[in-house]
Amino acid sequence: DAGITQSPRYKITETGRQVTLMCHQTWSHSYMFWYRQDLGHGLRLIYYSAAADITDKGEVPDGYVVSRSKTENFPLTLESATRSQTSVYFCASSDRAGVPDTQYFGPGTRLTVL
Amino acid sequence: DAKTTQPPSMDCAEGRAANLPCNHSTISGNEYVYWYRQIHSQGPQYIIHGLKNNETNEMASLIITEDRKSSTLILPHATLRDTAVYYCIVRGYKLSFGAGTTVTVRA
Questions:
Q1: pLDDT by residue (tens digit) across B56-72?
Q2: Which of A35, A89, A92, B23 has its CA 20 to 30 A from that of A59?
């Protein structure tokens, strides 16, 4: 199916482990984004990418690494997971930067770090 | 980006119009008003956006006051599937989600 997908949908890991969350979109959108959603904080931007091999930090980048070797994929890696990174992670994509753009969101990955 | 104020919750009867208010008194001239919604356990879903003029699409209508300090999202015929958290966002560049309005559509 066309659209934006995330995998896994649910993940439980332990403190200190590396974990990678995958995001794939079929629209060939140039821009992709990673957000985390926590109670009391709304959605916060972690990283974004304007094109393949171009990434930049968002509001809360510490502890995360991203890469974008192909336009359609934008994986998010937690190099050494911490309990504070327990959250719901959303990937989004857009065909342009700035307004008026429309970001389309994936279904989310619920990550629990024990 | 300008801050927005929305009521924390509201109820709506199925089949009736739902009118969701949003105040954004500090909006600047180049900032758009966006509405997204998030149904439980799903990703946010784009609804509509506008700058000055009223806008309508297949999902909703957006009414922006002439001074642009407030707006109203109208769901013309609310259904149970419209139960969600609705976010009013005023943005220049960044997309920032606040607390939103929890809308419950009742049969």
A1: 999 999 999 999 999 99
A2: B23
A45/B95 CB distance under 8 A: yes
B61 at the A interface (CB within 8 A)? Answer: no
Cα B58 to Cα A21: distance, rounded to the nearest angstrom: 33
What is the reported pLDDT for B93?
63
Find the residue in A nearest to B87 (Cα). A42
Q: Phi, psi (5° rounding) for residue B28?
A: -105, 170
Does A100 contact B51 at a Cβ distance shorter than 8 Å? yes
Residues of chain A numbered 54-113 and touching chain B (CB < 8 Å) = 90, 92, 97-100, 102-108
Q: Is B43 in Cβ contact with A106 (below 8 Å)?
A: yes
Q: How far apart are the C-alpha atoms of A97 and A101, rounded to whole Å?
A: 6
Instruction: Kindly report the number of other CB atoms within 10 A of residue A60's CB atom.
Output: 18
A69: tokens are: 């070797």
Burial class from Cβ neighbours inside 10 Å (0-12, 13-18, 19+) for residue A48 reads buried
